């Protein structure tokens, strides 16, 4: 994580509170909500005896599909005595000490009602949601996530100041992954600073811009629904 150290610590502290069961990371697309949620899970996984699971809602728009997505990720089958698959999911999670990450909740606004039911039915469950807008349910703790602040134009030639800027640090770090040895220099600093400013400090946009520095074959990393594991 680059430039999100304070946010990471703050979200972890929120989830550690007994009175907090749902935290929603709120921000525009590309602000880094998913990456922050993923890092929170990696940092906190040892605190949850039943592990952490990541559920991406981006591909669905029908709330009726949410229970099936949850069940598939958690490997839950509909059980006798339960009226629906979602009831089976609630029964499975009722005594679990688990972190459940629900990504892209704005894709299915009605999912908020299901999340509220999970919070009420599963006292040991912690939920970390990402959304462009609040879920507007009672137990929610909103955590706004803003883009990075681009460097002021008066500092575009000040290497020392630029190296402290989160947007610049992210650009350099990602540029190094495709062009090893890439570093901030007097000749390149103003252009890099302008790129970060034109991209409004959006982490995703900055990463994509940095990746174009190389003509090497692109490699993509995808996060799929399922258990989050550490090795």
The termini sit apart by: 18 Å
- Architecture (CATH level 2) name of the largest domain: 3-Layer(aba) Sandwich
Overall pLDDT level? 88
Residue windows where pLDDT falls under 50 for at least 5 positions? 215-224
CATH class of the largest domain: Alpha Beta
Shape: elongated
SSE order in H/E notation? HEHEHHEHEEHHHHE
Q: What proportion of the residues form beta strands (DSSP E)? A: 5-15%
List the strand order in the largest sheet.
5-1-4-3-2-6
Class by SSE composition: alpha/beta
Explain what the structure shows.
Helix 5 links the parallel strand 3 and strand 4. This protein has two domains: 142 residues, Rossmann fold (3-Layer(aba) Sandwich); 59 residues, no CATH class. The chain has a six-stranded mixed beta sheet with strand order 5-1-4-3-2-6, with helices on both faces. About 4% of the residues have low confidence. The protein is built from nine helices and six strands, in the order H-E-H-E-H-H-E-H-E-E-H-H-H-H-E. The longest helix is centred in the last third of the chain and has 13 residues. The protein has 231 residues and is α/β, with parallel strands linked by helices.
Short description:
The protein is of the alpha/beta class and 231 residues long.
Main attributes?
231 residues; alpha/beta; Rossmann fold; six-stranded mixed β-sheet; elongated
Helices and strands in order:
Elements lengths: L4 H12 L5 E5 L6 H12 L7 E5 L9 H9 L10 H9 L5 E5 L7 H11 L4 E6 L8 E5 L14 H4 L3 H13 L10 H10 L4 H9 L14 E3 L3
Parallel strand pairs: 1-4, 1-5, 2-3, 3-4
Antiparallel strand pairs: 2-6
Helix pairs in contact: 1-2, 3-4, 7-9
């Amino acid at each position: 994580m680059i430039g999100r150290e304070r946010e990471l610590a703050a979200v972890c502290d929120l989830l550690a509170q007994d009175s907090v069961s749902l935290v929603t990371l709120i921000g525009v697309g590309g602000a880094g909500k998913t990456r922050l949620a993923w890092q929170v899970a990696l940092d906190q996984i040892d605190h949850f005896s039943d592990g952490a699971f990541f559920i991406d809602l981006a591909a669905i728009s029908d709330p009726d599909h949410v229970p099936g997505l949850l069940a598939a990720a958690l490997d839950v089958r509909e059980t006798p005595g339960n009226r629906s698959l979602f009831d089976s999911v609630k029964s499975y999670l009722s005594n679990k000490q688990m972190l459940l990450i629900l990504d892209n909740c704005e894709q299915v606004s009605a999912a908020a009602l299901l999340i509220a039911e999970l919070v009420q039915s599963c006292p040991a469950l912690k939920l970390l949601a990402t959304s462009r807008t609040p879920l507007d349910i009672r137990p929610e703790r909103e955590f706004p996530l803003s883009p990075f602040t681009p460097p002021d134009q008066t500092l575009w030639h000040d290497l020392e100041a630029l190296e402290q800027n989160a947007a610049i640090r992210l650009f350099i770090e990602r540029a190094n992954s495709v062009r090893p040895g890439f570093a901030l220099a007097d000749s390149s600093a103003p252009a890099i600073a302008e790129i970060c400013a034109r991209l409004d400090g959006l982490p995703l946009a900055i990463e994509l811009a940095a990746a174009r520095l190389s003509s090497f074959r692109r490699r993509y990393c995808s996060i799929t629904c399922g258990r989050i594991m550490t090795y």
